[in-house]
Design brief:
CATH class of one domain: Alpha Beta
Strand order of the largest sheet: 1-18-17-13-12-2-6-5-3-4
Number of strands: 23
Shape: globular
Largest sheet: 10 strands, mixed
Distance between the termini: 53 Å
Number of helices: 10
Low-confidence stretches: 1-16, 18-24, 374-391
Helix content: 10-25%
Structural class: alpha/beta
Mean pLDDT: 88
CATH superfamily of one domain: Class I glutamine amidotransferase (GATase) domain
């Protein structure tokens, strides 16, 4: 592949999928800074990106944290280290164990006075329980939306990232998700879904993605919600979304893994023609058309020595990333991995492309998944999951 001045890949949109939109009127202005967790307090690029367009007050919301009295002030300190005016960063004092505070007009006014709001990590269900309880959205939730409508920024790390989409992942691991499907039970067998904040309108978001091997659970969540595209954000990396244009960019190498199932097929437990993109610093995507643009400074992938096929333990640290790198080293040879009764096969075709030196960016890698065993076993398992009596 010759050196590229600019690389753009356009993928056609086909199939009927649910649109993931927030509420009745989703914000179409403002920015989202979605961080995959594991954030280094010295990651200047992410903190400065979050603060870049904020001239006024910045609130830290530790609703997700089990120890908000500690995480709130510590997060304030972390952000202050990169702020020109540290005095404008403050702890909102919102706590999961005092949800009534979020329901007050005073809290709504406090958050509404900000240019930016940062949600800490923890348990994303705590955020929803306080801001979007079963009885209806509280004033503080409307204040968050209004910050975006005024052109402000909402940032979140870990749980603060998972909450971003309209339907969010509450719990689950990849192996159980692929075996059991969707569950309504938190921490139950499978992937548990729930209502999210509805700020990110382009698909589902997952966090700690490559490090914790969450490919399977995001895929099943997409299938369970009939959503076209999912975005797995890596630890200590970020996805920055401009809601006015629908375009998002990445901060850090191999920051976002995109699962695209628009042209995929599924028969029982067999899934074919899924597409994966692995996007890093400077790469971008249009969330409305799913057009991928690679950083114009990147060149043809030069290979990596840190690849050791065959691959087992698909849900281990960075295994999917290493499989993509192995395919980039030799696109003519499919790369196979196994775990938990499933076989993953990555292949490259004439639409697949790789860029980067060391850290690869990949576009349109094909993924096929099949359970270990016969088609009959697959069909029986599918029938059981649907609650049907097998013949």
């Amino acid at each position: 592949m010759p050196a590229l001045a600019f690389a753009t890949v356009v993928l056609s949109l086909t199939g009927d999928f649910a649109s993931v939109r927030a509420g009745e009127v989703a914000p179409t202005t403002g920015r989202l800074v979605i961080i995959g967790g594991g954030l280094d307090p010295e990651n200047r690029s992410i903190y400065e990106t979050f603060l870049a367009t904020s001239q006024g007050r910045v609130a830290v919301v530790p609703l997700a944290s089990g120890v908000p009295e500690k995480s709130g002030p510590l997060t304030v300190q972390d952000i202050q280290a990169f702020a020109e005016r540290p005095d404008r960063i403050f702890d909102s004092a919102l706590r999961f164990d005092a949800p009534e505070i979020a329901a007050t007009e005073a809290t709504a006014e406090l958050l509404g006075s900000c240019d930016a709001i940062w949600f800490t990590g923890g348990d994303q269900s705590r955020i929803i329980a306080a801001l979007r309880p079963s009885g209806g959205d509280v004033p503080a939730y409307d204040a968050v939306l209004n910050v975006l409508r005024a052109g402000g920024t909402i940032g979140g790390t870990s749980a603060g990232a998972a909450m971003m989409s309209d339907r969010m992942i509450r719990s689950g691991n990849s192996e159980e998700a692929l075996k059991r499907g969707v569950t309504e039970m938190i921490d139950g067998p499978g992937v548990c879904l729930g209502k999210g904040m509805g700020l990110f309108p382009y698909g589902l978001v997952d966090q700690h993605f490559l490090r914790r091997g969450r490919f399977g659970r995001l895929l099943v969540a997409l299938e369970g919600t009939e959503t076209a595209v999912g975005f797995g954000v890596s630890e200590n990396r970020a996805m920055v979304v401009d809601l006015a244009t629908g375009r998002f960019t990445t901060v850090g190498d191999q920051a976002v893994t995109v699962i695209d199932r628009r042209n995929a097929d599924r028969k029982g437990g067999v899934r074919s023609n899924l597409r994966i993109h692995l996007l890093g610093g400077g790469d971008s995507m249009d969330g409305r058309t799913f057009e991928v643009s690679i950083d114009p400074e990147k060149r043809t992938y030069s290979g990596s020595d840190d690849v050791a096929p065959p691959f087992s333990g698909l849900w281990g640290r960075y295994v999917i990333r290493k499989m993509i790198e192995a395919l980039a080293n030799d696109p003519s040879t499919p790369v196979t991995g196994t775990d938990g009764g499933f076989v993953f096969e990555l292949t490259a075709d004439d639409t697949t492309q790789f860029w980067g030196a060391g850290a690869v960016s990949a576009v349109n890698v094909r993924l096929d998944i099949r359970p270990v065993g016969s088609d009959a076993a697959v069909d029986l398992d599918a029938a059981i999951q649907r609650g049907q009596d097998p013949d």
